[in-house]
Specification:
By secondary structure, the protein is α/β, with parallel strands linked by helices. The chain has one domain (8-148, 225-348): Aldolase class I (TIM Barrel). Helix content is 38%, strand content 15%. Strands 1-2-3-4-5-8-9-10 form an eight-stranded parallel barrel, surrounded by eight helices. Strands 6-7 form a two-stranded antiparallel sheet. The chain is globular, with a radius of gyration of 19 Å. The protein starts with 7 loop residues before the first helix and ends in a 10-residue tail after the last helix. It binds erythose-4-phosphate and phosphoenolpyruvate. Phosphoenolpyruvate binds next to loops. Stereospecific condensation of phosphoenolpyruvate (PEP) and D-erythrose-4-phosphate (E4P) giving rise to 3-deoxy-D-arabino-heptulosonate-7-phosphate (DAHP). Belongs to the class-I DAHP synthase family. It holds the Pfam family DAHP_synth_1. Pathway: Metabolic intermediate biosynthesis; chorismate biosynthesis; chorismate from D-erythrose 4-phosphate and phosphoenolpyruvate: step 1/7.
């Protein structure tokens, strides 16, 4: 059976970004690009729930994060994980847009309305939003709200995702494969930097060929695999692989997923290790990712009564355990600015040609 969907223009008109929010997204994208290039010495922290299943509770979390973002703004650029599409290893809940009823039934028309409304509300907090683009066909409905994007470990080898990234007007993190291999993600960074022609849906709903210009701000994200890759050895290997591919040393490291064996209790250890590397002056570490939500842990999405404050996908660190980690990262970021190693790296760095995405 076929179900008609709204056009991107109709959905955007029903749930528009305010002019102030649209200006803020442009500023956030430029800031994130500057942090990745180390023209801005702060640390990027992409933090928030594994997935959004209850928009009101996720907005409550965003409010807490927005306060922390203001408090820590001298040292950190906090980006809210507003993930509404979930890639699955085999099957499972595929996110608020595809399955808004949390009942195993697909309802994209309702999910797009709910999802877009959530993203515009989340953008109104003033936070930059992070989003994983799982289905390229949905990108025209949401991309204008996003300031940092991910192509995930399960899709990083896909040509449509790489071509989408070459058009997306924000920095895009390419995650290493589930196997832990870096080469596929590095190839994705290279592919996304080039212009491509891709099929997409135009604002008025026509299937259209789009010429992209290439994304200068695609970068590698280390998320571990069967073994972690966040430690000094993993980071050094990633730097060598980037150098061999003639790519800049810009890295984001995910403390969750393969780097914590999907055990939220291990994320603090990973963050503490990363903070030590950062404080020691490692300027290739531009950002980190944390899966964090209101409460600690996860629940089964099939449960009869779902809690709004608990993840229904991967387990997350609760907010009260997240705040000390953000403080710790802020201190590490401050220390890095005065570390002799970072100062020497800055002096050696050629003037960047990368700029703000439109
Ligand atoms: O980030 C969330 C999950 O790791 C991802 O969606 C895959 O989950 P799965 O292996 O449970 O399908
Ligand atoms: C699915 C995710 O990550 P990865 O692609 O690294 O598994 C995620 O961040 O939600």
């Amino acid at each position: 059976m076929m179900h008609p969907l709204p056009t991107p223009a109709a959905l955007t008109a029903a749930h528009p970004l305010t002019p102030a929010a649209a200006d803020a997204v442009a500023d956030h994208r430029a800031t994130v690009a500057a942090v990745l290039d180390r023209r801005d010495p702060r640390l990027l922290v992409v933090v928030g729930p594994c997935s959004v299943h209850d928009p009101a509770a996720a907005l409550e979390y965003a409010g807490l994060l927005a306060d922390a973002a203001r408090r820590l703004a001298d040292d950190l650029v906090l980006v809210f994980r507003a993930y509404l599409e979930k890639p699955r290893t085999i099957t499972g809940w595929t996110g608020l847009i595809a399955c808004p009823g949390l009942d195993g039934k697909g309802d994209l028309a309702t999910g797009l309305r709910l999802g877009r409304s959530f993203l515009t509300d989340a953008a109104a907090t003033g936070l930059p939003l992070a989003y994983e683009f799982v289905d390229p066909a949905l990108a025209p409905y949401v991309a204008d709200t996003v300031s940092w994007a991910a192509v995930g470990a399960r899709t990083v080898a896909s040509q449509p995702h790489r071509h989408l990234a070459s058009w997306l007007p924000m920095p895009v993190g390419m995650k290493n494969c589930v196997s832990g291999r870096l080469d596929t993600a590095i190839a994705a960074v290279q592919a996304a930097a080039h212009p491509h022609t891709l099929p997409t849906v135009s604002p008025d709903g026509c299937l259209t060929a789009l010429d992209s210009t290439g994304n200068p701000d695609a970068h590698l994200v280390l998320r571990g695999g069967p073994t972690p890759n966040y430690d000094m050895t993993g980071v050094a290997q990633a730097r060598s692989a980037l150098a061999a591919a003639d790519l800049p040393h810009r890295l984001v490291v995910d403390a969750a997923h393969g780097n914590s064996g999907k055990d939220h209790d291990r994320q603090p250890h990973v963050i503490t290790d990363l903070a030590a590397q950062i404080a020691d002056g490692d300027d290739s570490l531009a950002g980190v990712m944390i899966e964090s939500y209101l409460s600690d842990g996860r629940q089964d999405p099939g449960a009869a009564t779902l809690r709004p404050d608990l993840s229904i996908t991967d387990p997350c660190l609760g907010w009260s355990r997240t705040v000390p980690l953000l403080d710790h990262l802020a201190l590490a970021s401050r220390r890095r600015r005065s570390s002799p190693r970072a100062v020497a790296d800055q002096a050696d760095r050629p003037a960047s040609t990368s700029g703000a995405a439109p």
